[in-house]
Write a structure and sequence with these properties.
Layout: E1 2-7, H1 12-24, E2 29-33, H2 39-43, E3 47-55, E4 59-60, H3 62-71, E5 80-86, H4 98-109, E6 113-115, E7 131-132, E8 135-136, E9 139-141, H5 150-161
Parallel strand pairs: 1-2, 1-3, 3-5, 5-6, 5-9
Antiparallel strand pairs: 3-4, 7-8
Helix pairs in contact: 1-5
Bound molecules: flavin mononucleotide (FMN).
Length: 166
Amino acid sequence: MIGIFYGSSTLNTEFVSQKILGEFGADRARLHNVKDVSSDLFDSYSAYIFITSTWGAGDLQDDWEVFVPELEKMSISGKTVALVGLGDQKNYPERFCDGIGVLYDKVEALGARVVGSTDTSSYEFKRSAAIRRDKFVGLVIDEDNQSDLTDDRITTWVKRVRKELS
Ligand SMILES: Cc1cc2nc3c(=O)[nH]c(=O)nc-3n(C[C@H](O)[C@H](O)[C@H](O)COP(=O)(O)O)c2cc1C
């Protein structure tokens, strides 16, 4: 079972998280807001999808900021994690989706295996802390400027990561 964990300030990430859950189906995945998560519940999953928007100066969404110290106490070493970031490439082109770059570093340091990197070519931005080896570390969604591409991006990505997360 895959645990999908999201944090959302103005509900864009919640909306996208529900779509991602829909692609996997209720028999494969469950959805949780990080602000309501206990460690027992967290530990019950074999694979994870972490979904965050970016706020402030390229920071994690607020509920993730609170949850990360908790995450550091849980055991995700050796588990598989996929990341999804929401951002706004037009208004924040210098720190587009930086939040998943922050999460990537945490999760890697905790010994998890991160899957689901994606190509940067269909986005226009100057800089992003979410890039490693010329790719985004996860799926990147821009509901502010490219909401028409969201469904296709999700479907294509879920098809690719489905096997790696099972
Ligand atoms: C004050 C403010 C700061 C933001 N900072 C960033 C940023 O640094 N990088 C980025 O890519 N997007 C940034 N965004 C865009 C949000 O991440 C984007 O709108 C996202 O879809 C919000 O998702 P949520 O409603 O689930 O939190 C910012 C938006 C606001 C209003």
